[in-house]
Amino acid sequence: MLEATVKKILQANVYEAACETPISPAPFLSRRFNNQILIKREDLQPVFSFKIRGAYNKMAQLTEEQKAKGVIAASAGNHAQGLAMAAKLMGVKAVIVMPRITPDIKVQAVRARGAKVVLKGDAFAAAAEHAHELMEEHGYTYIPPFDDIDVIAGQGTIGVEILRQHSGRLDAIFVPVGGGGLIAGVAAYVKYLRPDIRIIGVEAEDSACLKAALEANERVVLEQVGVFAEGVAVAQIGEVPFMLVKDLVDEVITVNTDEMCAAVKDIFEDTRAVAETSGALSLAGLKKYVQQTGVEGETLLCINSGANTNFDRLQHIAERTELGEQREAILAVTIAEKPGSFKKFCRTLGKRMVTEFSYRYADSTEAHIFVGVQVKPGGEDRQAVIEKLRDGGYQVEDLTDNELAKLHIRHLSGGRPSERFEEALYRFEFPERPGALMNFLTQLPHDWNISLFHYRNHGAAYGRVLVGMQVPSGDQTHVADYLNAIGYRYWHESDNPAYQLFMA
């Protein structure tokens, strides 16, 4: 299968639509990590993503009869734009089914490239189901985003370019992983010619379908998939990609939201390009690999797979960058409720920069403060700050890795009810579309009172919502049943220390 795939890659027809993208050096990162770090710039494609390669190559294999009937796909982003452009260049009708939550900027980009857009469902699964219904009804040819050998061959041309453009030492290539089409194509070509080069897949830790499949030695379906890096938010690795990569990939690294945001900043500082979070995923994995292994003097290349991000999302990315670089510690500290306490607290910190401070009077003896402190990367300095405060007699709770604290509490801290009552706290991800909140409220039992609500728009397909509810005692054992029926992803946060310290 490997030889057949490499042959298809060499025969792939992509350059009537795609361009050969350069490899950019990353001098700042290279000096910082004592390795030569290179970035393959797929963000420079005409559709700002590598997806144009696979879409065009797949369409180039169609018969004239298939082209005459048209093509269809389900996609919320880059594959949609790649297919729309490929179809326009070939003069073929294209229908793209997109979830209703798809940001308008992406919908308009697909329409601008000549495709017909059908909005259906709140998630990709519903859009994909409708796409297959239309395919059966009209005789369209379905163009898959990753689970197809011709699509994989198109993406594999990136591997051809890498080895041609950089003929010298190359120790590892870091590839973002969603459905697996990109890593399958790159790994097949590179391993066939240069088996000494390590191929390292990088996944978001909340959508790590390849890692799960490798551990189980078979494809598995993730129960839940995170949506922050929506370009790689896939619940199951593709069947054809997995057949290839299970024997070719040397390692899979997972990274979190903050690490991706930090990588977006790193790419910008070295290239002035604004990567999407899934585009910066591979660099986040590269950095983590260097930190974990301590390698020096190696040549490491990562693929920036795309730059399709909403402008208003950059605020949230910038907000999380310092945490991703481990340059900020988020702490809950208990101090005495008396004059001079804050000054004493700052004196204990010494000359460290306080990046954030939130406080509101709640008790005559103790105050809980929400504080951000600038620290050095690596984690040791953060621990040193915590130990110094504890040695000074302070109670400290480390919230640096606490999602509730970072998404909501830092914007709400200090608000407490004047009287005690029972409250259940849940964190939700709502589809970002009109009517989503009303759907949630309508399906809650009528005698449940909402006692807390916090929402922020991050420019993504999903909004993050924090809800406090007063649940009657007779309903408490059935809360999960009610919430599961609504169908939104959620977390029970009533015992979260960030909530208990600042809002309970």
UniProtKB/TrEMBL annotation:
Q: Which InterPro entries match?
A: ACT-like_dom_sf (IPR045865), Ser/Thr_Dehydratase (IPR050147), Ser/Thr_deHydtase_PyrdxlP-BS (IPR000634), TD_ACT-like (IPR001721), TD_ACT-like_sf (IPR038110), Thr_deHydtase_biosynth (IPR005787), TrpB-like_PALP (IPR001926), TrpB-like_PALP_sf (IPR036052)
* SUPFAM superfamilies in the cross-refs: ACT-like (SSF55021), Tryptophan synthase beta subunit-like PLP-dependent enzymes (SSF53686)
* Keyword set includes Amino-acid biosynthesis: yes
Q: Which Gene3D superfamilies match?
A: 3.40.50.1100, Biosynthetic Threonine Deaminase, Domain 3
For this protein, what reaction is catalysed? L-threonine = 2-oxobutanoate + NH4(+)
Q: Does the keyword Transmembrane helix apply?
A: no
Which UniProt keywords are present, listed alphabetically? Answer: Amino-acid biosynthesis, Branched-chain amino acid biosynthesis, Isoleucine biosynthesis, Lyase, Pyridoxal phosphate, Repeat
**Which biological pathway?**
Amino-acid biosynthesis; L-isoleucine biosynthesis; 2-oxobutanoate from L-threonine: step 1/1
Domain ACT-like, chain residue ranges per copy: 329-401, 424-495
The GO terms this record gives for MF are: L-serine ammonia-lyase activity; pyridoxal phosphate binding; threonine deaminase activity
Q: Name one Pfam family in it.
A: PALP
GO BP field: isoleucine biosynthetic process; L-serine catabolic process; L-threonine catabolic process
Known cofactor(s):
pyridoxal 5'-phosphate
Top-level class of the enzyme under EC nomenclature: lyase
Q: What is its EC number?
A: 4.3.1.19
Job of this protein? Catalyzes the anaerobic formation of alpha-ketobutyrate and ammonia from threonine in a two-step reaction. The first step involved a dehydration of threonine and a production of enamine intermediates (aminocrotonate), which tautomerizes to its imine form (iminobutyrate). Both intermediates are unstable and short-lived. The second step is the nonenzymatic hydrolysis of the enamine/imine intermediates to form 2-ketobutyrate and free ammonia. In the low water environment of the cell, the second step is accelerated by RidA.
User: Oligomeric state and partners?
Assistant: Homotetramer.
Q: What protein family is recorded?
A: Belongs to the serine/threonine dehydratase family.
Q: What is the protein name stated in its UniProt record?
A: L-threonine dehydratase
Organism annotation: Vreelandella nanhaiensis
Which gene carries the instructions for this protein?
ilvA
